[in-house]
Design a protein that fits this description.
Blueprint (H helix, E strand, L loop, with lengths): L4 H8 L5 E3 L2 E3 L9 H15 L4 H4 E4 L2 E4 L8 H17 L9 H10 L14 H13 L4 E4 L9 H6 L8 E5 L3 E8 L10 E4 L14 E6 L5 E5 L14 H6 L4 E11 L3 E4 L2 H10 L2 H31 L5 H26 L13 H26 L2 H4 L10 H10 L7 H15 L2 H12 L4 H11 L2 H13 L11
Parallel strand pairs: 1-10, 5-8
Antiparallel strand pairs: 1-2, 3-4, 6-7, 7-11, 8-9, 9-12, 10-11
Length: 489
Amino acid sequence: MLRSGKQHLERLRDGRVVYIGAERVDDVTTHPAFCNAARTIASIYDMKADPAHAEAMSFAENGHRYSMYFLQARTAEDLRRRMRCHKAIADLTYGMFGRSPDHVASYVTAMAMNPQVFDTATRAFAGNVVDYYRHTRDHDNYVAYAVLPPQAARDPDFYLRKSMTVPTLEVVAETDDGIVVSGMKMLATGAAFADEIWIGNIQPLAPNQVKQAVTCAVPCNAEGLSLWSRQPIARNAANEFDSPLSWRFDESDSMVMCDNVKVPWNRVFVLDDAALSRDIYIRTAAHCYANHQSNVRYWAKLQLIVGLASRVAQATGADQVPAVRETLGRLAALEATLGAMIHGQIEACEPRPEGFVTFNRRFMYAALNWCIESYSSLIDILRELSGGGVFQMPASVSVLDDPVLRAKFEQYWQTPQMAALDRIKLFKLVWDLVGSEFAGRHLQYEKFYAGATFTVRAHNFREAPWDAFHKVVDDLMASYDVPTGPPKG
């Protein structure tokens, strides 16, 4: 089933508990902090459900159509179809929604391709994973995730030594019907607009952290579950013209608080297995599928940055300066580099697991490392090209409401290259990407959405063919030896 945007908004009116400070949000579809982003999510669903986009955004199976990001790839062409779907969603949001509905769905889809990983000597949860994949696919669900402990709670022993409550989520009871979990998880980006939350552990746990070693899925309106939002950005935006990105694309970030939340057994995927709790992301293609989506999403955002850089240079006349053209050429080369890395993940795809294919893991992790390393410098290039132009603009487009002020503005803010109204529109957009609160959130997000830098590089280290690298060195050294006889010459 492909749901419409209207259907998705209706499903968000489900009694979920969302807090902004002490304020309880009754309806995220109408609250000023969330309503515009909710409509952006709805537009993704409308695009997918549009018959004109059927072949690009969905696939047919057993007489039904499903969102393309639930496609379990068996060929390189299947991977291309997935990539094109991710790109269409990222283009619609200009790469601003890091955890759009296709992200966690990619995790679940890939896990269900290799469900036997979830069966152990003591627990058999493979069937649950397959059933959950079918459930999310069939209902076109938007799943967010919270897969990290609170930042200061990654050593539970510290809390125990201080006789303090360990804040991280753990299993507090098992019943005939399922498990009960309590505690906190971070960071559920997009959960305010999602149907369910995947709770797990993307980072390794200590062997004794068995009670924290739980992976499960819970509805966003589950009894005892609440979402504690960071300061929303959108409600500080006066209008879309002055804050075009803040207005539409504040996807939200929330801490997930569980107070004796009941989880039925069919929504439990890992239990009491500290190693497996993290290994499910690596032993399946899940981490690769989901972070390929991240690469593609970043690519769309990079295209916006490159386009803005060129438009800013045109607006100031700097596009005729050789040094500026060199900078623009470098940006274009960087955009092409990322595009090539993304396509390379498909052209060099891997047969994994049996009967399926996945994106090339090395190329995906290399692109991921490139992305988190590059964002700050990319934004700085745009910042330098903009110079003081972002501060020359009036505080608000409301200046146009006064006929006298408007006349002066249109006369003095125009340039030979661009009319005054077009200039303020351009530079307001640039500021929302380089200097606003929204821009600050994205700068932080792009550094850490895949984990700290050392985590991403550890993935690259794990996947590197070290034996092959060493063989190159060893073969070269084996091709010559200590010289014998008198020196020549």
